[in-house]
Design goal:
82% helix
């Protein structure tokens, strides 16, 4: 009986966290970190303020959890487009394009591109991309290693290449967000990146 009660409590806790993250994602996306309100989040999620602070230390901690969820969503989109490609090389190009496109999605853009670098310290921001399984950087490393193993690209230090490409795409995402015509900027960034990537092919 105690085991059932414990499992039920864990399920309720998980459901509360999921609901809070879902509502917080929408709140941070629509209003940005500065404009988002924890009062609005707990009201929309239909939980008490105590429940919020039971699971998260505060607004910044909640944003950090939302940021990780957003990174995973970007990773899911990258993986879906990469897997749909005809070969590993096409997977690299499609995955990189998917990253830039996902970062141009207003909801994800507000959290990952605009707010996260300002709200989180640099080490925290980078560690998520570096260590979160399924993040864009981890998927990029896997893809590049596969291409090196299959001799489809020049033999090169995968970690170094992944960080160089990731840094370039992160900067491109910021540039797109600030562009007068984001749609045109996205197309230009994707086309330019494709040209750069061609230099890696054997």
């Amino acid at each position: 009986m105690e085991k059932k009660a414990s499992l039920s409590k864990k399920a309720q806790s998980a459901a509360t966290i999921k609901r809070l993250l879902s509502v917080a994602m929408q709140e941070f996306s629509r209003k940005g970190y500065a404009g988002a309100s924890t009062e609005a989040i707990v009201k929309e999620a239909q939980v008490t303020r105590g429940a919020l602070y039971h699971h998260f230390k505060g607004k910044k901690d909640l944003f950090y959890a939302v940021f990780k969820e957003a990174q995973l969503e970007i990773g899911n989109r990258i993986e879906a487009d990469a897997d749909a490609a005809d070969d590993p090389w096409g997977g690299l190009v499609s995955g990189c394009n998917a990253f830039l496109k996902a970062c141009s999605d207003p909801a994800l853009q507000q959290i990952v591109v605009i707010d996260a670098p300002a709200v989180l310290d640099w080490n925290t921001y980078r560690s998520v991309d570096e260590n979160l399984p399924g993040s864009g950087l981890s998927l990029l490393k896997e893809c590049l290693q596969d291409l090196v193993d299959q001799k489809m690209i020049k033999p090169i230090a995968v970690d170094a290449l992944a960080h160089l490409l990731s840094g370039a795409m992160d900067e491109a995402a910021v540039w797109i967000a600030q562009a007068e015509d984001p749609s045109q900027a996205l197309t230009q960034a994707q086309n330019t990146l494709a040209t750069l990537l061609e230099g890696l092919r054997n």
